[in-house]
């Protein structure tokens, strides 16, 4: 196992946070608010707390992704850069999104919200993979 790219971990977390600001702001903020309603977004009352929790969750995700990439031979990643996207996107598509949607189904949360949130996690994991690739 090679060393974890900690600069990549931090960059991946920051890239996913920036994407979240764009995703839940100008891109889909109004659509999610319309689906959930103003009472359903308690996070709006404590933006600093929400940001800290999101950053912590993304740091854990990016650290685990960094460990995953460190387990691969560096030559393989250099020769096959699509592995960054295949592996990071695969994590989102095969683990994170199904878990999210299963939880949403049990809570009877609107499909529109599930699609917005699932789309974010797929895009966020792909952006994290891109950050590791860029800093490899």
Explain what the structure shows.
With 136 residues, this protein is mainly α. The chain has one domain. The protein is 81% helix and 0% strand. α5 runs antiparallel to α6. The two termini are 15 Å apart. The relative contact order is 0.21.
In short:
The protein has helices at 6-27, 29-36, 47-70, 74-79, 82-107, 111-134. With 136 residues, the protein is mainly α.
- Overall number of domains: 1
Count the beta strands. 0
The overall pLDDT, averaged over residues, is 90
Based on CA atoms alone, the radius of gyration comes out at 16 Å
Specify the helix fraction band: over 70%
- Taking pLDDT < 50 over at least 5 consecutive residues as the criterion, the unreliable ranges are none
H and E order: HHHHHH
Question: Gap between N and C termini, in Å?
Answer: 15 Å
Q: Approximately what portion of the residues adopt beta-strand conformation?
A: under 5%
* Class from secondary-structure proportions: mainly alpha
Give the helix tally: 6
Largest sheet: none
Shape: elongated
């Amino acid at each position: 196992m090679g060393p974890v790219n900690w600069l990549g971990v931090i960059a991946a977390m920051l890239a996913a946070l920036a994407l979240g600001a764009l995703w839940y702001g100008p891109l889909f903020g109004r659509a999610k608010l319309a689906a959930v309603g103003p009472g359903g977004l308690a996070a709006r009352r404590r933006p600093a707390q929400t940001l800290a929790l999101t950053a912590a969750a993304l740091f854990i995700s990016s650290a685990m992704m960094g460990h995953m990439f460190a387990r691969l031979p560096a030559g393989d990643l250099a020769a096959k850069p699509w592995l960054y996207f295949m592996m990071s996107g695969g994590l989102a598509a095969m683990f994170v999104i199904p878990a999210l949607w299963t939880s949403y189904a049990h809570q009877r949360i609107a499909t529109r919200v599930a699609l917005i949130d699932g789309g974010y996690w797929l895009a966020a994991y792909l952006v994290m993979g891109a950050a590791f690739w860029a800093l490899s």
